[in-house]
Amino acid sequence: MSRTVTVLRAPESVSLPQGTRVIRAGSASVVLRPRVIALSATGVAVLATAIVGHLLWAGRPLQLGQVLGALAGDPALSRAVRLTVLEFRLPRTLAGAVAGACLAVAGGITQTVARNPLATPEILGVTAGASTGAVAVVVLAGAGHGGASGLAAVVGMPVAAAIGALGAGTAVFLLTRRRGGREFDSTRLVLVGLGIAGLASSLTTWLLTLGDVTNAAQALTWMMGSLNGRDWGAVVPSLLAAVPLLLAAAACGRWLAVSSFDDDTARGLGLPLATSRPLLLGLAVLLAALGTVLAGPVAFVALMCPLAAKSLARAVVPPLSLTALLGAVFVVLSDLAAGFLLPHAVPVGVFTTVLGAPVLIVLVRRSQKRPA
């Protein structure tokens, strides 16, 4: 049987952006917003430019023809150029893009579900839990000194970071759960997250006192957010995990849009809050854990990018496609500037913190000026 596809214009009585179209096929429907589509297309172009720029200038400058030739598999290029582009620079560039997209989308989900622009994975303790797991491996296993320690550095550190992030997120879920119900209180979510983040940070500080100076320095570098040493062994599994998670987040777009309303309105619109909130927050935890495992706890990506996407799109809820693109561009360009364009190289997390701190200050000032 053929399926009827209908394209509807938003009626004048409905307050939707100009030019919005709704494509409906049976019981499924998709809302097309021309402004978001145009911004996303621009974001793809900017991301492609940022990736090429990173491949060109992340170290000794290369020519554009050399980079494009290496990507196309030109056999005429020297082995040194192909090795530089394909084995050293491209994995680091893709790692930054994937980590930025995952962290940004995770922030967009948590901000929308909690209805609070400050409710990011950092506030909810997810990245702090990941840091605790990674530091535990570095300090207790002596990662980076060869033998079993070298194996711990390659495999144990990412696994421990993922377990720490998931453990912190699970603790927040359980402690936020209301008695006799399955719903989450937004205010309690943020407060419990702050408590879990403080507990994990204190545990991380204590672990640092147990290790020697070399291990502590390595742990501190990772905790600031760093893409150093990323290779295909770390990028490929992360990319394979990121794609389905980002697609699942995109599929939950309607849930996110309705979650921005108060509970009574959301229930009236048919949103199963007891199901949607745990699933959305669980998805955000997985995305944040993946981004943290890949690049460390890069600060302020989850805060800035959803807010920027919402502002650019003039939307109530940050469009996740645009949010992911902004996160990828932000981390790739920040890593290029922090590691190779500044007089002295610094971890990418330091650079994003310098840029994100003023945004946090502006948010606090705006909230203080808001009428009660």
Report on the structure:
By secondary structure, the chain is mainly alpha-helical. The protein is 70% helix and 4% strand. The protein is built from 14 helices and 3 strands. Strand 2 and strand 3 form a beta hairpin. Helix 3 packs antiparallel against helix 11, helix 3 packs across helix 12 and helix 4 packs parallel to helix 11. The longest helix has 36 residues. The N and C termini lie far apart (56 Å).
Question: What descriptors fit this protein?
Answer:
single chain; 372 residues; mainly alpha; three-stranded antiparallel β-sheet; 14 helices; globular
The biggest beta sheet is recorded as:
3 strands, antiparallel
Number of strands: 3
Topology pattern, helix = H, strand = E:
EEEHHHHHHHHHHHHHH
* Mean residue pLDDT: 82
**Terminal CA distance:** 56 Å
Shape: globular
Calculate Rg over CA atoms: 22 Å
Instruction: Determine the structural class based on helices, strands and strand pairing.
Output: mainly alpha
Strand order of the largest sheet: 1-2-3
Per DSSP, the total helix count is 14
What is the helix fraction of residues, given as a range? over 70%
